[in-house]
Amino acid sequence: LTRRAVSAVEREAKTTSGRPFFLYLALNAPHTPIAPSATWRGRSGLNAYADFVMETDAVVGRVLDALDNSGAADHTLVIFTADNGPEGYAYERVRAHGHRSMGPLRGVKRDLWEGGHRVPFLVRWPGKVKPGTTSSQLTSLTDVMATVAAIIGTKLPENAAEDSFNMLPAWLNEDTTPIRP
């Protein structure tokens, strides 16, 4: 997946002449089965899961490097997120290593508590979103649809993405009004 994503970035950056292109890279890591490649096994000094997370970080880094090296980074929106909080064995990591992948929140995947549902949502968009900008806005992955529609200036049909809200004002630090009515 990494090689194909990097190839796609390099190819599209050359052939599109600055026109937009879309790359969706849905990594299966670091989901189970916990299977870091041979190159990454043991590198964290903690356990296989930490090795797998480090490998995932390296994959994202390679794609970002490809964007930077191709010249496409300055006009590319990158969204990095996850689909759920940590698995139940996260508490083992807390006890053994003091590492709380759910941060200060209580709960893991399939719990009702926020630790199982809050996920990282990182945006890199040079010239638009200032590095280091943070927001405490309540958002959902469903909001990506309305946000992208706003970015490209398209109105969504009435029957499309009706639960999606535009996050762009929060990303641009223009409005602190809650996104959800």
Structure description:
The chain has 181 residues and is mainly alpha-helical. Helices cover 33% and strands 4% of the residues. The chain has a two-stranded antiparallel sheet with strand order 1-2. The longest helix is centred in the N-terminal third of the chain and has 23 residues, at 48-70. The radius of gyration is 18 Å and the shape is globular. The termini are far apart. The mean pLDDT is 90.
Order of helices and strands: HHEHEHH
Main beta-sheet annotation: 2 strands, antiparallel
Indicate the low-confidence ranges by residue numbers: none
In whole angstroms, the N-to-C terminal distance is 39 Å
The gyration radius over C-alpha positions equals 18 Å
Give the averaged pLDDT, no decimals.
Answer: 90
Shape: globular
Structural class: mainly alpha
Fraction in beta strands = under 5%
Helix content: 25-40%
Q: What is the strand arrangement across the widest sheet?
A: 1-2
Helix count equals 5
Quantity of strands, as a count: 2
Write the layout of secondary structure elements.
Layout: H1 2-15, H2 48-70, E1 78-81, H3 90-97, E2 121-124, H4 143-152, H5 168-171
Antiparallel strand pairs: 1-2
Report a brief summary of the structure.
By secondary structure, this protein is mainly alpha-helical. It has five helices and two strands; from the N terminus they run ααβαβαα.
Labels describing this entry:
33% helix; 5 helices
